[in-house]
Protein backbone atom coordinates (compact mmCIF):
# COMPACT_ATOMS: atom_id res chain seq x y z
CA UNK A 1 0.00 0.00 0.00
CA UNK A 2 1.04 3.61 -0.44
CA UNK A 3 2.56 5.48 2.47
CA UNK A 4 0.58 8.12 4.35
CA UNK A 5 2.24 11.54 4.29
CA UNK A 6 1.95 14.67 6.35
CA UNK A 7 1.24 15.06 10.04
CA UNK A 8 -1.85 15.11 12.23
CA UNK A 9 -5.04 13.08 11.60
CA UNK A 10 -4.82 11.13 8.36
CA UNK A 11 -7.40 10.20 5.77
CA UNK A 12 -8.72 6.69 6.56
CA UNK A 13 -7.35 3.73 4.62
CA UNK A 14 -9.09 2.94 1.36
CA UNK A 15 -11.52 0.02 1.65
CA UNK A 16 -11.73 -2.33 -1.35
CA UNK A 17 -14.73 -3.88 -3.03
CA UNK A 18 -18.42 -3.19 -2.78
CA UNK A 19 -18.21 -1.56 0.67
CA UNK A 20 -15.68 1.07 -0.45
CA UNK A 21 -18.15 3.80 -1.29
CA UNK A 22 -20.46 3.11 1.66
CA UNK A 23 -17.50 3.30 4.05
CA UNK A 24 -16.13 6.42 2.39
CA UNK A 25 -19.46 8.23 2.46
CA UNK A 26 -20.05 7.26 6.08
CA UNK A 27 -16.69 8.80 6.90
CA UNK A 28 -17.53 11.93 4.91
CA UNK A 29 -15.24 11.04 2.02
CA UNK A 30 -15.51 10.94 -1.75
CA UNK A 31 -13.35 8.64 -3.89
CA UNK A 32 -11.71 10.29 -6.89
CA UNK A 33 -10.09 8.68 -9.92
CA UNK A 34 -6.93 10.41 -11.15
CA UNK A 35 -5.41 9.80 -14.58
CA UNK A 36 -1.72 10.68 -14.47
CA UNK A 37 1.11 11.01 -17.00
CA UNK A 38 4.76 11.51 -16.17
CA UNK A 39 8.29 11.53 -17.48
CA UNK A 40 9.97 9.04 -15.15
CA UNK A 41 13.49 10.36 -15.78
CA UNK A 42 13.87 12.44 -12.59
CA UNK A 43 11.99 10.04 -10.31
CA UNK A 44 13.01 7.05 -8.19
CA UNK A 45 9.82 5.30 -9.35
CA UNK A 46 6.20 5.73 -8.34
CA UNK A 47 6.26 4.62 -4.69
CA UNK A 48 7.20 7.07 -1.95
CA UNK A 49 10.66 6.36 -0.50
CA UNK A 50 12.54 8.18 2.25
CA UNK A 51 15.00 10.70 0.86
CA UNK A 52 13.97 10.06 -2.77
CA UNK A 53 11.89 12.04 -5.22
CA UNK A 54 8.96 9.90 -6.40
CA UNK A 55 5.82 10.43 -8.45
CA UNK A 56 3.61 9.41 -5.54
CA UNK A 57 5.38 11.88 -3.28
CA UNK A 58 4.98 14.75 -5.75
CA UNK A 59 1.28 14.12 -6.39
CA UNK A 60 0.40 13.51 -2.73
CA UNK A 61 2.26 16.64 -1.66
CA UNK A 62 0.43 18.63 -4.33
CA UNK A 63 -2.92 17.28 -3.10
CA UNK A 64 -2.06 18.16 0.49
CA UNK A 65 -1.19 21.69 -0.60
CA UNK A 66 -4.16 22.49 -2.84
CA UNK A 67 -6.80 20.63 -0.79
CA UNK A 68 -5.34 21.93 2.50
CA UNK A 69 -5.29 18.52 4.15
CA UNK A 70 -2.87 17.12 6.73
CA UNK A 71 -2.41 13.87 4.79
CA UNK A 72 -3.60 11.91 1.76
CA UNK A 73 -3.14 8.37 0.52
CA UNK A 74 -2.98 7.47 -3.17
CA UNK A 75 -3.59 3.93 -4.41
CA UNK A 76 -2.13 3.30 -7.87
CA UNK A 77 -2.87 0.78 -10.62
CA UNK A 78 0.79 -0.13 -11.12
CA UNK A 79 3.93 0.92 -9.26
CA UNK A 80 6.42 1.85 -11.95
CA UNK A 81 10.16 1.47 -11.30
CA UNK A 82 12.78 4.19 -11.25
CA UNK A 83 13.03 5.86 -14.66
CA UNK A 84 9.89 4.24 -16.12
CA UNK A 85 7.37 6.61 -17.73
CA UNK A 86 3.57 6.67 -17.85
CA UNK A 87 1.05 8.05 -20.29
CA UNK A 88 -1.94 6.25 -18.75
CA UNK A 89 -1.35 5.70 -15.05
CA UNK A 90 -4.45 5.54 -12.84
CA UNK A 91 -4.78 6.17 -9.10
CA UNK A 92 -7.54 6.80 -6.61
CA UNK A 93 -7.75 8.88 -3.46
CA UNK A 94 -10.42 9.37 -0.80
CA UNK A 95 -10.91 13.04 0.08
CA UNK A 96 -13.31 14.79 2.48
CA UNK A 97 -16.55 15.72 0.74
CA UNK A 98 -16.05 19.38 1.64
CA UNK A 99 -12.94 19.66 -0.57
CA UNK A 100 -13.96 21.72 -3.64
CA UNK A 101 -13.55 19.54 -6.75
CA UNK A 102 -14.13 22.27 -9.31
CA UNK A 103 -10.80 23.15 -10.92
CA UNK A 104 -8.91 20.70 -8.68
CA UNK A 105 -6.99 19.15 -11.59
CA UNK A 106 -6.02 22.59 -12.85
CA UNK A 107 -4.84 23.62 -9.39
CA UNK A 108 -2.84 20.41 -9.01
CA UNK A 109 -1.11 20.93 -12.35
CA UNK A 110 -0.39 24.49 -11.30
CA UNK A 111 1.81 23.32 -8.41
CA UNK A 112 3.19 20.10 -9.90
CA UNK A 113 6.46 20.05 -11.77
CA UNK A 114 5.94 19.84 -15.53
CA UNK A 115 7.30 16.28 -15.55
CA UNK A 116 3.97 15.18 -13.99
CA UNK A 117 0.46 15.99 -15.25
CA UNK A 118 -2.94 15.06 -13.89
CA UNK A 119 -4.76 14.47 -17.17
CA UNK A 120 -8.10 13.53 -15.63
CA UNK A 121 -9.82 13.82 -12.25
CA UNK A 122 -13.41 12.88 -11.41
CA UNK A 123 -15.51 11.08 -8.78
CA UNK A 124 -14.94 7.34 -9.18
CA UNK A 125 -17.77 4.93 -9.97
CA UNK A 126 -19.11 2.81 -7.11
CA UNK A 127 -16.75 -0.02 -6.17
CA UNK A 128 -13.77 1.43 -8.03
CA UNK A 129 -10.28 0.51 -6.81
CA UNK A 130 -7.45 1.70 -9.06
CA UNK A 131 -5.32 -1.34 -8.27
CA UNK A 132 -7.67 -4.25 -7.68
CA UNK A 133 -10.45 -3.35 -10.13
CA UNK A 134 -8.05 -3.33 -13.09
CA UNK A 135 -8.42 -6.02 -15.74
CA UNK A 136 -5.00 -5.40 -17.27
CA UNK A 137 -2.03 -3.08 -17.61
CA UNK A 138 -0.44 -2.30 -20.97
CA UNK A 139 3.13 -1.11 -21.53
CA UNK A 140 5.15 -0.26 -24.60
CA UNK A 141 8.92 -0.57 -24.82
CA UNK A 142 10.59 1.52 -27.55
CA UNK A 143 13.89 0.52 -29.15
CA UNK A 144 15.87 1.93 -32.06
CA UNK A 145 18.71 0.18 -33.83
CA UNK A 146 19.35 3.14 -36.13
CA UNK A 147 23.08 3.85 -36.59
CA UNK A 148 22.62 7.39 -35.20
CA UNK A 149 20.74 6.22 -32.09
CA UNK A 150 17.53 7.69 -30.72
CA UNK A 151 16.09 10.87 -32.18
CA UNK A 152 16.88 13.78 -29.85
CA UNK A 153 13.24 14.41 -28.87
CA UNK A 154 12.72 10.71 -28.02
CA UNK A 155 16.02 9.98 -26.29
CA UNK A 156 14.39 9.77 -22.86
CA UNK A 157 11.81 7.11 -23.81
CA UNK A 158 13.62 5.08 -26.48
CA UNK A 159 16.48 2.63 -26.00
CA UNK A 160 19.28 3.10 -28.52
CA UNK A 161 20.60 -0.36 -29.42
CA UNK A 162 24.07 -0.44 -30.99
CA UNK A 163 23.52 -3.46 -33.28
CA UNK A 164 20.86 -4.41 -35.87
CA UNK A 165 17.94 -6.43 -34.53
CA UNK A 166 16.01 -9.22 -36.23
CA UNK A 167 12.44 -8.14 -35.44
CA UNK A 168 10.66 -11.19 -36.97
CA UNK A 169 12.77 -13.47 -34.76
CA UNK A 170 11.88 -11.37 -31.70
CA UNK A 171 8.19 -11.50 -32.63
CA UNK A 172 8.32 -15.29 -32.99
CA UNK A 173 9.96 -15.64 -29.59
CA UNK A 174 7.39 -13.31 -28.02
CA UNK A 175 4.42 -15.38 -29.19
CA UNK A 176 5.72 -18.39 -27.27
CA UNK A 177 5.42 -16.46 -24.00
CA UNK A 178 1.75 -15.43 -24.29
CA UNK A 179 -0.74 -17.06 -21.92
CA UNK A 180 -0.99 -17.89 -18.23
CA UNK A 181 2.37 -18.98 -16.83
CA UNK A 182 4.51 -18.77 -13.75
CA UNK A 183 6.85 -15.93 -14.73
CA UNK A 184 9.27 -16.54 -11.84
CA UNK A 185 12.13 -16.72 -14.38
CA UNK A 186 11.45 -13.09 -15.33
CA UNK A 187 10.47 -11.65 -11.92
CA UNK A 188 12.07 -10.64 -8.69
CA UNK A 189 10.45 -12.86 -6.10
CA UNK A 190 8.57 -11.47 -3.10
CA UNK A 191 7.93 -13.77 -0.17
CA UNK A 192 4.37 -15.03 -0.20
CA UNK A 193 3.48 -13.33 -3.50
CA UNK A 194 2.48 -15.22 -6.63
CA UNK A 195 4.45 -14.91 -9.87
CA UNK A 196 1.66 -16.46 -11.95
CA UNK A 197 0.46 -13.95 -14.53
CA UNK A 198 -1.64 -14.02 -17.69
CA UNK A 199 0.27 -12.40 -20.53
CA UNK A 200 -2.48 -11.25 -22.87
CA UNK A 201 -0.19 -9.92 -25.58
CA UNK A 202 3.47 -9.50 -26.39
CA UNK A 203 3.72 -8.07 -29.88
CA UNK A 204 7.01 -6.90 -31.38
CA UNK A 205 7.00 -4.88 -34.59
CA UNK A 206 9.03 -2.31 -36.46
CA UNK A 207 7.07 0.85 -37.15
CA UNK A 208 7.36 2.79 -40.42
CA UNK A 209 9.77 5.23 -38.78
CA UNK A 210 12.10 2.31 -37.96
CA UNK A 211 11.43 2.28 -34.22
CA UNK A 212 10.90 -1.20 -32.75
CA UNK A 213 8.02 -1.44 -30.27
CA UNK A 214 7.25 -4.25 -27.85
CA UNK A 215 3.56 -3.95 -26.91
CA UNK A 216 2.95 -5.87 -23.67
CA UNK A 217 -0.34 -6.42 -21.82
CA UNK A 218 -1.07 -8.65 -18.82
CA UNK A 219 -3.54 -8.92 -15.98
CA UNK A 220 -0.67 -7.73 -13.76
CA UNK A 221 3.14 -7.64 -13.77
CA UNK A 222 5.66 -8.54 -11.13
CA UNK A 223 8.78 -6.47 -10.47
CA UNK A 224 11.01 -5.96 -13.56
CA UNK A 225 8.97 -8.50 -15.55
CA UNK A 226 8.49 -6.43 -18.71
CA UNK A 227 12.11 -5.30 -18.83
CA UNK A 228 13.35 -8.87 -18.29
CA UNK A 229 11.12 -10.13 -21.11
CA UNK A 230 12.44 -7.39 -23.40
CA UNK A 231 15.99 -8.24 -22.39
CA UNK A 232 15.44 -11.85 -23.43
CA UNK A 233 13.95 -10.74 -26.76
CA UNK A 234 16.93 -8.48 -27.41
CA UNK A 235 19.23 -11.51 -27.09
CA UNK A 236 17.12 -13.21 -29.76
CA UNK A 237 17.09 -10.12 -31.96
CA UNK A 238 20.88 -9.97 -31.92
CA UNK A 239 21.12 -13.62 -32.90
CA UNK A 240 22.80 -14.66 -29.66
CA UNK A 241 19.88 -16.93 -28.77
CA UNK A 242 17.29 -18.83 -30.84
CA UNK A 243 13.61 -17.79 -30.77
CA UNK A 244 12.77 -20.78 -28.55
CA UNK A 245 15.17 -19.70 -25.81
CA UNK A 246 12.95 -17.24 -23.83
CA UNK A 247 10.18 -19.86 -23.59
CA UNK A 248 12.70 -22.47 -22.41
CA UNK A 249 13.86 -20.04 -19.69
CA UNK A 250 10.22 -19.43 -18.72
CA UNK A 251 9.45 -23.12 -18.30
CA UNK A 252 12.57 -23.75 -16.21
CA UNK A 253 11.16 -21.29 -13.68
CA UNK A 254 14.56 -19.98 -12.56
CA UNK A 255 16.27 -16.67 -13.18
CA UNK A 256 18.84 -17.12 -15.93
CA UNK A 257 21.96 -14.92 -15.68
CA UNK A 258 21.91 -14.69 -19.47
CA UNK A 259 18.67 -12.64 -19.27
CA UNK A 260 19.63 -8.98 -19.02
CA UNK A 261 16.98 -6.60 -17.68
CA UNK A 262 16.50 -3.88 -20.29
CA UNK A 263 17.07 -0.26 -19.20
CA UNK A 264 14.12 1.49 -17.57
CA UNK A 265 13.88 4.55 -19.79
CA UNK A 266 12.51 2.65 -22.82
CA UNK A 267 9.40 1.57 -20.91
CA UNK A 268 6.08 3.45 -20.68
CA UNK A 269 2.81 2.45 -19.01
CA UNK A 270 0.25 3.44 -21.63
CA UNK A 271 -3.09 2.01 -20.47
CA UNK A 272 -4.97 0.44 -17.56
CA UNK A 273 -8.18 -1.36 -18.52
CA UNK A 274 -11.20 -1.71 -16.22
CA UNK A 275 -14.48 -3.62 -16.52
CA UNK A 276 -17.88 -1.91 -16.86
CA UNK A 277 -18.85 0.10 -13.78
CA UNK A 278 -21.31 -2.53 -12.54
CA UNK A 279 -18.48 -5.10 -12.38
CA UNK A 280 -15.81 -2.98 -10.64
CA UNK A 281 -16.46 -4.14 -7.07
CA UNK A 282 -16.65 -7.81 -8.01
CA UNK A 283 -13.42 -7.56 -9.98
CA UNK A 284 -11.69 -5.94 -7.00
CA UNK A 285 -12.75 -8.76 -4.68
CA UNK A 286 -11.56 -11.47 -7.07
CA UNK A 287 -8.22 -9.78 -7.73
CA UNK A 288 -7.57 -9.08 -4.07
CA UNK A 289 -8.13 -12.75 -3.22
CA UNK A 290 -5.53 -13.79 -5.80
CA UNK A 291 -2.92 -11.05 -5.44
CA UNK A 292 -2.69 -10.37 -1.72
CA UNK A 293 -0.15 -12.72 -0.07
CA UNK A 294 -1.22 -14.69 2.98
CA UNK A 295 2.15 -14.02 4.64
CA UNK A 296 4.04 -10.72 4.93
CA UNK A 297 5.76 -9.86 1.65
CA UNK A 298 8.47 -7.68 3.18
Automatic annotation (TrEMBL):
Residue positions binding substrate: 139
Q: Which UniProt keywords apply?
A: Isomerase, tRNA processing
Regions that span the bilayer: none
Which GO molecular function annotation, any one, does this entry have? Answer: RNA binding
- List this protein's GO terms for biological process: tRNA pseudouridine synthesis
SUPFAM superfamilies assigned: Pseudouridine synthase
Catalytic site positions:
81
Q: What is its EC number?
A: 5.4.99.12
Does the keyword Protein biosynthesis feature in the UniProt annotation? no
As given in the record, the signal peptide range reads: none
Q: Which reaction does it catalyse?
A: uridine(38/39/40) in tRNA = pseudouridine(38/39/40) in tRNA
Which Pfam families does this chain map to?
Answer: PseudoU_synth_1 (PF01416)
Instruction: Tell me the enzyme class.
Output: isomerase
Q: Does the keyword Cell membrane apply?
A: no
Please state which protein family the record places this protein in: Belongs to the tRNA pseudouridine synthase TruA family.
Xref: HAMAP family: TruA
Q: How does it assemble?
A: Homodimer.
Q: What is this protein called?
A: tRNA pseudouridine synthase A
- The organism encoding this protein is Frankia torreyi
